[in-house]
Amino acid sequence: MSDLIPGLGAGTEMVILFFLLMALRVPVAFSLGLSAIYAMWQIGFGLDLAGDLISAGVTKFSLLAIPFFILAGTLMGTLGIAERMIRFFRVLIGSTPGGMGVVGTVVCLFWGAVSGSGPASVAAIGPMIVKGMEEDGYSRAYAAGLVCTGAALSIVIPPSIGLVIYGVIAETSISQLFIAAIIPGLFMGLMMLATLPFARREGPAGSPALDALSPAPHAGLPYGTRLWLAFRQAFWGLVTPLVILGGIYSGIFTPTEAALVATVYALGVGAFVYRTLSFRGLYEALADAAASSAVVMLVVAYAGLFGWVVTVEDLVGTYSEALLGLSGNEWVILLVIMLVLLVAGMFMDAITVMFISLPIFLPVMREMGWDPVWFGVVVMVNLAIGLFTPPVGINLYVAANVTRLSIERIARGAVPFLLASLLGLAVIASLPSLSLTLVEVLR
User: Fold this and answer.
1) What family is this (predicted)?
2) How many angstroms separate the CA atoms of 331 and 28, rounded?
3) Are 116 and 240 in contact (CB under 8 A)?
4) Which residues of 89-121 are buried (b: 16+ CB within 10 A; e: fewer)?
5) How far apart, in Å, do the first and last CA atoms of the chain sit?
6) Looking at residues 75-83, what average pLDDT do you find?
7) Predicted confidence (pLDDT) per residue in 340-357, tens digit
């Protein structure tokens, strides 16, 4: 059979073809599938094997967490749980320096413990946060940049779909990954807050917009009363992370089962507490979650083909040896891995990047003696930054859709957060104890 590029193996040709298809704007899943099928044809394996490989790639129990966490996050937004949480945090900390900037950061971090998906978080809470920040004097572009950044941390803050995928690929405890990501996720949130004093404000701090979501009859009441009323309304949403994470860490249910618990919990709160559940709202939530889940699972399915070729052609051994040959210094190798992840994250979604790169990076991780849990957190922070890094960070596109701003304006608004996040990434990578201390305490 003739080679696409003479002198190169089928595996390397597959990688080149994948990036060529991506450059031609072929959807990621089909770029993976077509390039893998081409390589299988070149190798000489029957294409009837493709169906078995696709089936094996998606029939993993732990992957059930993905559609249910997406559905839980969608329901939280549809049923008004997100709005009540934002209202509570606006009353709680809206009058502090930074105003809605602080509120937006805290809500994004909190929502990350509910949604687990960066783009879904932008869509669910972005419009409310951007509107409040704009009324509080922040530029619309800066507010959109904050939402893009905070929502990206949804794949770091547990429960995280990204960590579930990493745990499956690396065969690492998903529960330990969730625990390890808590402190780094909060630290990245602090780095976001550090940018607020440098934001240009176009209006006075503490504008009336801070109470925009508060019930009108309570607007003139004392702070303590308003806080209590907002807390009482938001209570069932605020305890969601405790239900999910508490159940996982106490051993009541697994991370996969937690996704189903979160979905049932959201339905119960919407139906019996807030009474906001309707057949139309449920249908829309199911449709949105199904569409989002289908995109993710299609990538996972075709990534199974891609990964099989990587294994058969021994690309793992070839590329990991090349990476190890760059330097004997583990920090240099880690820096190269992080740069690769950051650049890849600019052009591809986090799940695709992991399926392509982790088979190469994990052997290097083992050779270097790095902790797989710490490495998973570093990988996830890298990929989170990629979600809001130009030119094609997916959060930027979702934010452009909900704010009606151009990608270029939102990208400029995200620059301060990008710089702060890169600094935070450097700290997390250089201090493994930041990720592993809590794991050791709870182990």
Assistant:
1) Belongs to the TRAP transporter large permease family.
2) 31
3) no
4) bbbbbbeeebbbbbbbbbbbbbbbbbbbbbbbb
5) 54
6) 80
7) 888 777 766 677 788 878
- The CA distance from 289 to 255, in Å, is 19
Question: How far apart, in whole angstroms, are the C-alpha atoms of residue 50 and residue 38?
Answer: 11
* Distance in angstroms (rounded) separating the CA atoms of residues 264 and 134: 35
Peptide bond into 127 cis (omega under 30): no
The average pLDDT across 211-232 equals: 68
Nearest C-alpha neighbor of 113 from the set 95, 125, 101, 98: 125
Spatial distance between the Cα atoms of 404 and 58, rounded to a whole number of angstroms = 36
- Please give the Cα distance from 274 to 291 (Å, whole number): 26
pLDDT tens-place string over residues 188-209: 989 988 888 777 665 544 444 4
CA distance 98 to 195: 10
Mapping DSSP onto H, E and C, the string for the chain reads CCCCCCCCCHHHHHHHHHHHHHHCCCCHHHHHHHHHHHHHHHHCCCCHHHHHHHHHHHCCHHHHHHHHHHHHHHHHHHCCHHHHHHHHHHHHHCCCCCCHHHHHHHHHHHHHHHHCCHHHHHHHHHHHHHHHHHHCCECHHHHHHHHHHHHHHHHCCCCCHHHHHHHHHHCCCHHHHHHHHHHHHHHHHHHHHCCHHHCCECCCCCCHHHHCCCCHHHCCCCHHHHHHHHHHHHHHHHCHHHHHHHHHHCCCCCHHHHHHHHHHHHHHHHHHHCCCCCHHHHHHHHHHHHHHHHHHHHHHHHHHHHHHHHHHCCHHHHHHHHHHCCCCCHHHHHHHHHHHHHHHHHHCCHHHHHHHHHHHHHHHHHHHCCCHHHHHHHHHHHHHHHHCCCCCCHHHHHHHHHHCCCHHHHHHHHHHHHHHHHHHHHHHHHCCHHHHHHHHHHC
Going from N- to C-terminal start, the domains of the chain cover 10-442
Give the least confident one: 2-16, 68-82, 262-276. 2-16
